[in-house]
Amino acid sequence: MITIVYANPNPCSFNHSILESITTLLTDNGRDYNVIDLYADGFDPVLSKADLENAMHGKATDSLTERYQKMMRNTGSIIFIFPIWWGMMPAMIKGFIDKVFMKGIIYDTSPEGAILPMLNVEPCTIITTSQEDSETLSNFFNGVFIPQVLNPVGINRVTWLNCDNVENADDSLRKAFVDEILMRVAE
Fold first, then answer.
1. Which contacts qualify for 17-26: CB closer than 8 Å, 24 or more apart?
2. 8 Å CB contact between 43 and 96
3. CA-to-CA distance for 168 and 156, rounded, in angstroms?
4. What are the pLDDT digits (tens) for 82-113?
5. Pairing of the two strands 124-129 and 158-163
6. Of all residues in the chain, what percent carry a pLDDT higher than 70?
């Protein structure tokens, strides 16, 4: 099963076009997939005091978080699709990680405190769009998000693809970016 985690509130966005291109390809190829559309689902990314207290007991406070956790536990590969705003991921993605990546569900810890992965997910493709150059964002994705957030919970073989300077990109650049994505997803 492929799980797509999507975060963009604008149905007319380039991100949404990417999502549609991927789901069309997967459907045409008879591949099983789920889409987690954080905005459409009405996901609340805020980690509340109750969320934190329940997480200490391995329990989510809402059924949507539980559903996402089950999807993550049953997936073989993940695709993240989101824009970069102010040099960072949307709060929806950060909140998804804060609430869904729960100890005892997505990871555990050794007696010494080391993170032990509970997922076995690969590959993972992170697809982003930004105004910033990819080189500027690389330190975050390749130095923090992938090695310190995804890999420790068992999400491996991660590829990050970014369409930078997206507002100034012409249709041929956007098409080439989508073609590259579709080639990777089809593998």
1. 17/174, 17/178, 18/81, 18/127, 18/129, 18/178, 18/181, 19/81, 21/178, 21/181, 21/182, 22/79, 22/81, 22/181, 22/182, 22/185, 25/182, 25/185, 25/186, 26/2, 26/185
2. yes
3. 32
4. 999 998 999 999 999 999 999 999 999 999 99
5. parallel
6. 100
DSSP 8-state assignment for residue 90: -
The domain defined by 2-186 folds into Rossmann fold (3.40.50)
Q: Where are the domains of the chain?
A: 2-186
DSSP state of 87: T
Count the Cβ atoms, other than its own, within 10 Å of residue 55.
Answer: 20
Burial class (CB in 10 A: 0-12, 13-18, 19+), 99: buried
What are the residues whose beta carbons fall under 8 Å from the beta carbon of 59, sequence distance 6 or more? none
Q: What is the pLDDT of residues 11-56, one digit of tens each?
A: 999 999 999 999 999 999 999 999 999 999 999 999 989 888 888 7
- Tokens found for residue 158: 């991660």
pLDDT of residue 52: 86
pTM metric for this prediction: 0.95
